Amino acid sequence: MRVYLPCTLPALATAVQAGELGPAPLTGYAVTPALTEWYASGDTEELEYVALTEAARASLRLLAADAAEAAPRRVVVAAEVPEGSVKAGADLTERARVRLAEPVPLAKVASVHVDDLDAVPDIEAAIAALPAADDGDDDARFTVDGAEAHELMWYATQEIPDLWP
User: Fold this and answer.
1) What is the rounded CA–CA span in Å between residue 153 and residue 122?
2) How remote is the C-alpha of 157 from its chain's centroid?
């Protein structure tokens, strides 16, 4: 099963050193039955894009929590994991959100998706606007949503070390 894991560049560097994404439990995003039911007209590729987008939103929140350390670029790690290690539940508010009971070995990583440097100003603005957006400010929500105007760049696993200086 393909799972999209929100990340940051420092967390990705740590995972490369450790040889796995963890510790468990991990929050990820995938094509779940609830997502399929909600987006009934979509094919698998469209549903996976929705899951990737949800993971990118979660990455933005990780960046906000670690603004001093993390470069303002959203990171999503796509991995193939056994279905038995993924749990989607009714108690989770987001349709694509899943929990992984075990760390994900880097060998299971299929690709990494990262904001281009051109997105940095909009990502910084979105991070700054998150608190106001969470409080219901429509202008702040517009700014946060503006981060999604940037498509994440695709990187093969062998390109991961090229993502940091």
Assistant:
1) 15
2) 16
Indicate left, alpha or beta for 41 from its phi (over 0: left) and psi (-120 to 50: alpha). alpha
Beta carbons of 1 and 83 less than 8 angstroms apart? yes
Three-state DSSP state, 21: strand
Q: Which of 152, 116, 158 is nearest to 16 (CA)?
A: 158
* Burial profile 84-113: b = 16 or more Cβ within 10 angstroms, e = fewer: ebbebeeeeebbbbbebebbbebebbebbb
Question: SS3 for 52?
Answer: helix
Token pair in block for residue 41: 């007209």
Tell me how far apart the 2 most distant CA atoms of the chain are, in Å: 43
Reported confidence tier of residue 93, pLDDT bands at 50, 70, 90: low
- Measured distance CA(114)–CA(110) in Å, rounded: 14
In 3D space, the residue among 52, 29, 13, 41 whose CA is nearest the CA of residue 150 turns out to be 52
Helix (H, G, I), strand (E, B) or coil at 69: coil
Q: For residue 20, what pLDDT band results from cuts at 50, 70 and 90? A: very high
Q: What is the pTM of this model?
A: 0.90
